[in-house]
Amino acid sequence: MKIKSPNKDYTGVSASVPFCNGVGETEDPYLIQWFKDHGYEVEETPEKAEKPAKEKNTSK
């Protein structure tokens, strides 16, 4: 998930996540909650369910 720093120009490492121009990424649920609790914006990414499911071949 994308994590957006309150400082849009921040480049560095926070809570082990590298940021460039105020944006970092992590999939760690603990860190995501930590960032939410500390005023960072967390951009929820669409679930993997968005990928098309394999279609069953019903033709005979």
**Discrete helix count:** 1
In terms of per-residue confidence, which ranges show pLDDT below 50 for 5 or more consecutive residues? none
Radius of gyration: 17 Å
Q: Output mean pLDDT.
A: 86
Q: What's the helical proportion of residues? A: 10-25%
**Most strands sheet:** 5 strands, antiparallel
Give the CA-CA distance, first to last residue: 43 Å
Tell me which oligomeric state these chains represent: single chain
Strand content: 25-35%
Structural class: alpha+beta
Polypeptide structure, described:
This protein has 60 residues and is an alpha+beta fold. The chain has one helix and five strands; from the N terminus they run E-E-E-E-H-E. The chain has one helix at residues 29-37; strands at residues 2-4, 12-14, 17-20, 23-25, 41-43. A five-stranded antiparallel beta sheet has the order 2-3-4-1-5, covered by helices on one side. It is globular, with a radius of gyration of 17 Å. It starts with a strand and ends in a 17-residue tail after the last strand.
